[in-house]
Amino acid sequence: MEIIVLVKEVLDPDLPPSKFSVDTKNNRVIPPEGIPPVISPYDAVAIEAALRIKEEAGGRITVVSLGNPSAEAVVRKALAMGADAGIVVSDPSFDLEDSYLAAHILTQTIRKIGKYDLILCGRQAVDWDRGVTGPIMAEYLAVPVATLARAIKVSDRSVRVERVLADGHETLEMDLPAIITVSNEFGQARIPSAWGVIKAVKEEIPVWSAKDIGAEDAQNKDNPGEGRLRRLYIPSYERKCEFLTGERPEELAAALVKKIYSRETASP
Amino acid sequence: MTEKFDAIVVGGGPAGCASACVMAKSGLNVLLFERGQYAGAKNMWGGAFFGPQLKELFPNFREEAPVERFVTRHTFSFLTKKGSTTLDFKPAFSGPPSDNGFIVMRAKFDKWLAKKVEQAGAIVVTSMLVDDLLLDGGRVTGVRIGKEEFSSDAVILAEGVNGILAQKAGLCSGVSADNMKQGVKEVIALPKQTIEDRFNVNGSEGAAMEFVGSCTRGVPGGGFLYTNKESLSVGIVVELGALVKNRLKASDLLEEFKEYPDVARLIRGGKTVEYSAHLIPTGGLKMMPKLFSAGVLVAGDAAALVLGTGLILEGANFAMASGVAAAETVITAKKKNDFSETALRDYERLLREGFVLRDMHTFKETPRLLKNTRIYDLYPEVVFEVLENILENDGKPRTKAYKIAGKVIKTRVGFARLLSDLWAMRKMT
Fold first, then answer.
1. Which of these, B77, B369, B364, lies nearest to B216 by C-alpha position?
2. Under CATH, which number does the domain B4-66+105-172+289-363 receive?
3. What's the pTM?
4. Residue B283 distance to chain A (closest CA, Å)
5. Chain B environment of A234 (Cβ under 8 Å)
6. Closest chain B residue by Cα to residue A193
7. What's the gap in Å between the CA of A198 and the closest CA on chain B?
8. Pick from A183, B10, B146, B205: CA 20 to 30 A from residue B255's CA?
């Protein structure tokens, strides 16, 4: 079983709000000094899923991260957890905010890797929470996809997936190769062992550029695009507290209703 | 896996990183464990430190290290409820800022240090808490994390203050609150320009300010304020035992400290972005554990190698120096392949030849003398009152300054007590 897991380096979601700042001029999040990025938590669950499949069915796990060269750290973390090989895909020309482009670049990467039975990714990256890269890749690679998996069972040439739904779950069966996006309901990602970390430190992690994967045209590629980022800002919430006065409950209720319908109250 | 390391270092602070770096550079196979998510994640200090040891290890650190500002101005203030008296030391530099003091944020600085360790060829493993030492007939042969075991010729314990492994190795028998100071600190964000205007510093210049007096309510200790690039580090360091005795909380004292006009004016308009607290082993030589035994050496705060002279509190520089000495000891031991207690005695010799143990000896009486509470409540007031009387013009004929001083001392302290305190303090700073 050849498994490829896609992981993304994101800002630490446990970052204190005081450390989070936005460059409003360039519509960009300013990376906080001194606090290293982490592996997107859903992606860590995807690695866990891959490891459990490997433990059951055998095989090999290759971890791919598209992003900055610093993504090496999250790939190393995956290796420490037990993955077999890692690749970083990075090129200054990549526009990483566009999911279609990201899916295109990752598809090219998968094509270069060649053989695969299963591609796993997190249900969504916790930075933009779009959750579309996996399904778009399925389209590009013309393979079946199941999103929001909470359980995965691989048999010879097919895979059975339990998907999380709003009111329960459903079970799908797909032919391999396939793409699955893994949800947190799957289970906890394991903590790497110390020996795992030591082994991972010594591993070579190649960095593939646009040229290496034949994605030089990524930026000009005729893709539908998903919209443009107009403005990035930290929303500000203003609260106002006011005490209504009145003798009787009826009076208070009437005053409250009047207040709610008055123009003074901000529209939701 | 059965790989054996030449040395395992426990702790990714200044002591651990310095020792790992020196050993790795000399070709040893070194493994460093840090319990934080990254080196520096759990570490804390006031913010200013002296750099000779750092310079020796990394001659280019001025260009490379994430130094916030270089200390070009040092102030010492006596605080009282009525007002303050300040000594402002600001040498006129013509060249680059002095090498003497640096203001650094640990989260950034320790991470940089750990990077240096990796570049030197050591393996740094973070998020790993070492649970225990491996022992073989009284000799330390490695460490254990959960069920995983790691063996090595030598283990350097740079685990920081109140080190559990040093206790498990039988090198120290726990610490007492009277030998500890608690530091609490806020990092308050302010624009760069505001800091430079308020503190009269430019570019990479910075101010280090120390306060002694009523701000600690008679508890031995003091307050500090350091300028970072775009924030201030404001905090207090107070004796833990006295806090307990007086039923005070360091966090409350910090709040009060921030309200003193001397401090409030400087931090006005700033936003608190970080809050941290840590223990400092300030017991001096008397609390120092046994520094080594077969297969194991202790460095930095774990060995209580912190120098408190009353005017300065120096830990990181000592930590690095002891880390280097431990590393050199292990390198020599490796050559002879002898890690017995006798072979590791070199460590103490190196510390004695360098400044670490010599300074600790020079100031060995200081920790005891600093417990004299008159330093914190009475003397700041005396100094203030003398100056108040000299500078006051109440329309009456003036008195000579020494007579005013004499009168204040006589009524507030008594000459005998002042002389005995001064006689004692001669040994202190």
1. B77
2. 3.50.50.60
3. 0.84
4. 32
5. none
6. B148
7. 7
8. B205
How does B46-77 read in b/e, with b if 16+ C-beta sit within 10 Å?
bbbbbbebbeebbeebbeebbbbbbbbbbbbb
Domain CATH for A141:
3.40.50.620
- Which chain B residues are Cβ-neighbours of A193 within 8 angstroms? 146, 148
Cβ separation of B148 and A34 shorter than 8 Å? no
- Are A194 and B145 inside 8 Å of each other by CB? yes
Same CATH fold assignment for domains B4-66+105-172+289-363 and B178-281: no
Q: Encode pLDDT of B95-139 as tens digits.
A: 555 566 888 888 888 999 999 999 999 999 999 999 999 999 889
Give chain A's domain count: 1
Q: pLDDT band for position A268 (50/70/90)? A: very low
Cβ contacts of B107 on chain A, cutoff 8 Å: 34-35
Tell me which of A77 and B369 has the higher pLDDT.
A77
Interchain pair B111, A36: CB under 8 A: yes
Query: Can you read off the two tokens belonging to residue B191?
Result: 């624009």
Chain A, residues 227-266, CB within 8 A of chain B, namely none
What pLDDT is stored for residue B145 in this prediction? 94
The tens digit of pLDDT for each residue in A12-33 reads: 988 888 788 899 888 888 888 7
Beta carbon pairs, A and B, within 8 Å: 41
Parent domain of A113:
2-220
| Helix A99-113 vs helix A133-141: crossing angle, to nearest 10 | 50
- Specify whether the CB–CB gap between B63 and B96 falls below 8 A: no
Whether ipTM exceeds 0.85: no
For chain B, the domains span 4-66+105-172+289-363, 178-281, 369-425
Fold of B178-281: D-Amino Acid Oxidase; Chain A, domain 2 (3.30.9)
Q: What is the mean pLDDT of residues B319-330?
A: 95
Q: Which two tokens stand for residue A173?
A: 């069966």
What's the pLDDT at A218?
67
Chain B: give the shortest CA distance to residue A18, in Å. Answer: 6
